[in-house]
Design goal:
Helix content is about 75%, strand content about 5%. With about 210 residues, the protein is mostly helical. The radius of gyration is 20 Å and the shape is elongated.
């Protein structure tokens, strides 16, 4: 849309007589991309929230004996990795396109969550959660770029207002699902079950997303 100067028709509008006629195929693709990118970013929260839910069990001596200091440096490592990843994935998203970056990042997040659920030491849990932060940061910049390709600049304020509901709803669903899985099957499933959910979203993203 940014390539069209003022006064020129937007790519989703054609003129038929005196009234503009919207291109139904283009409209379909706009809302298809809106939906799948919304779901993808909400899905990232499934594996992001797992550690915070599992903490209650991990601090028990018979489980892992994780101290408050351990939890602090693990959370810190995750935050630093997430911040660094924002500078990495943004340029790579421009170079390779959102599809490649998000698919790689999402699958890496699933794999890391499975490894966290299988780990038994504080050090390994910390290293993996830092890696999870790097995986998580692959979502925001490429996905917002993807949305921007299908909506004009004058629309993006309103569109992104609705699109950004994904992190509120995604975080709520993720915490609820992880807590249910941990209570029902044990703390490891706070990682395993959300990882399975994100893998399902990965498949949908593979099938329905396109860069342009």
């Amino acid at each position: 849309p940014a390539k069209y100067p003022p006064g020129m028709n937007e790519p989703n509008v054609t003129t038929g007589g005196s009234a503009p006629v919207r291109d139904r195929r283009y409209e379909y693709w706009r809302w298809r991309i809106f939906s799948i990118t919304w779901l993808a970013y909400a899905g990232f929260y499934l594996t992001r929230k797992a550690f915070s839910v599992a903490k209650n069990e991990l601090k028990k001596p018979e489980v892992m004996g994780m101290t408050k200091a351990d939890m602090s440096w693990i959370d810190g490592a995750n935050s630093v990795a997430y911040a660094v990843g924002q500078f990495v994935w943004g340029p790579l998203g421009d170079k390779f396109g959102p599809r490649v970056i998000v698919l790689v990042g999402m699958l890496a997040s699933v794999t890391t969550a499975l490894a966290m659920g299988s780990s038994s030491t504080v050090l390994l849990m910390g290293v993996l959660f830092a890696l999870q932060g790097l995986c998580q940061s692959s979502g925001w910049a490429p996905l917002t770029k993807n949305v921007g390709e299908f909506f004009s600049r004058r629309e993006r304020g309103s569109v992104m207002g609705f699109w950004c509901t994904n992190y509120a709803l995604g975080g709520f669903v993720a915490s609820t699902l992880a807590a249910w899985a941990a209570q029902k099957f044990g703390w490891r499933y706070a990682f395993f079950v959300p990882a399975g959910g994100l893998f399902g979203i990965w498949i949908l993203f593979l099938l329905f997303q396109r860069n342009r």
